């Protein structure tokens, strides 16, 4: 790699530059990759349903399957649609059917990849079910969603369901080290730990954060990562909670205000970090259970549109008031 390439972290989008091209390159989903490779080796690919949170390899696995099945011809035999943009029944009836009907040579079937399929309306899913039946001889569907419960049962029963889990810290750290080495980026151990913590199992977020942090200075360290990702240090979250439980509401509220106004965190992000760290704060089991109950209530209210700061202050106040 040339010096110009390694010194210009903003020239390319790294999540695309380092997107795995084959199933063997996919990090952290070994069991799923083994099953998918078995389907391909036996030339017996069923309809597939990939379910799981963002940034863990669902889309990457779908395109890698197409590359391995079709080789250089994969783009002509692989149709990718995003259901969140194209939600209506007309898309299912028109675009998918037209692609499924089109003639092709040299392959037994074509692949249609429907990303964010849980955004499809109920009518569109019913139309999709009928299309899957009609073109089962020459078309395979890969559906991707965050919540499989939003996919109607008739579709789920026609698919082999793969539930992707958030990536392990080791898998995220391994890929981040590899990219940092290839880009010639100096990174501290604390910086790597911060990237892994901020990513929370999301490889896409980890790589984006690394690229952003690499533009801020010569070294990717803990301070740069937390600043770029607008993430609170775990000790800050713990200090805020323990201050509230100890009855020092003023100190807890001051920490919260700093996170919201100076760090620039959203209320939902603070809720997520509270939830992730609840069992690591060194609280008694009773105190942790109380905290979890308050987190659940605040999360619901914020999701429904309530004022974030008011709800988070109310959470801290309830912890301070409880004996």
Automatic annotation (TrEMBL):
Q: Which InterPro entries does the entry mention?
A: AAA+_ATPase (IPR003593), ATPase_AAA_core (IPR003959), DNA_pol3_clamp-load_cplx_C (IPR008921), DNA_Rep/Repair_Clamp_Loader (IPR050238), P-loop_NTPase (IPR027417), Rep_factor-C_ssu_arc (IPR023748), Rep_factorC_C (IPR013748), RFC_lid (IPR047854)
| A Gene Ontology molecular function term of the record | DNA clamp loader activity
Q: Where does ATP bind?
A: 52-59
Question: Could you tell me the keywords of this UniProt record?
Answer: ATP-binding, DNA replication, Nucleotide-binding
GO biological process, alphabetically ordered: DNA repair; DNA-templated DNA replication
Quaternary state and partners of this protein? Heteromultimer composed of small subunits (RfcS) and large subunits (RfcL).
Protein purpose? Part of the RFC clamp loader complex which loads the PCNA sliding clamp onto DNA.
Name this protein carries in UniProt: Replication factor C small subunit
Its lineage opens with: Archaea, Methanobacteriati, Methanobacteriota, Stenosarchaea group, Halobacteria
What gene is this protein translated from?
Answer: rfcS
């Amino acid at each position: 790699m040339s010096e110009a390439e390694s010194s210009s972290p903003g020239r390319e989008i790294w999540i695309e530059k380092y997107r795995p091209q084959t199933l063997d390159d996919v990090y952290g989903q070994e069991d799923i990759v083994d099953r998918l490779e078995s389907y391909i080796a036996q030339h017996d690919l069923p309809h597939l349903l990939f379910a799981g949170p963002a940034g863990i390899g669902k889309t990457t696995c779908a395109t890698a399957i197409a590359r391995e099945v079709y080789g250089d011809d994969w783009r002509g035999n692989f149709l990718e649609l995003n259901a969140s943009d194209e939600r209506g029944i007309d898309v299912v009836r028109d675009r998918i059917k037209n692609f499924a009907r089109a003639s092709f040579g040299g392959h037994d079937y074509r692949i249609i990849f429907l990303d964010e399929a849980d955004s499809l309306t109920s009518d569109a899913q019913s139309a999709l079910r009928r299309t899957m039946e009609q073109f089962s001889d020459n078309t395979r569907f890969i559906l991707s969603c965050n919540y499989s419960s939003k996919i109607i049962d008739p579709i789920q029963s026609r698919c082999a369901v793969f539930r992707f889990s958030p990536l392990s810290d080791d898998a995220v750290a391994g890929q981040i080290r590899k990219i940092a080495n290839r880009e010639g980026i100096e990174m501290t151990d604390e910086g790597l730990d911060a990237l892994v913590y901020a990513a929370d199992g999301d490889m896409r977020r980890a790589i984006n954060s690394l690229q952003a942090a690499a533009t801020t200075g010569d070294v990717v360290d803990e301070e740069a990562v937390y600043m770029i990702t607008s993430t609170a240090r775990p000790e800050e979250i713990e200090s805020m909670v323990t201050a509230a439980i100890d009855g020092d509401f003023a100190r807890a509220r001051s920490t919260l205000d700093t996170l919201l106004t100076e760090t620039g965190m959203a209320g939902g992000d603070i809720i997520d970090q509270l939830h992730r760290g609840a069992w690591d704060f060194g609280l008694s089991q009773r105190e942790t259970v109380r905290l979890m109950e308050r987190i659940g209530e605040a999360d619901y209210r914020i999701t429904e549109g309530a004022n974030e700061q008011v709800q988070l202050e109310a959470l801290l106040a309830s912890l301070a008031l409880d004996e």
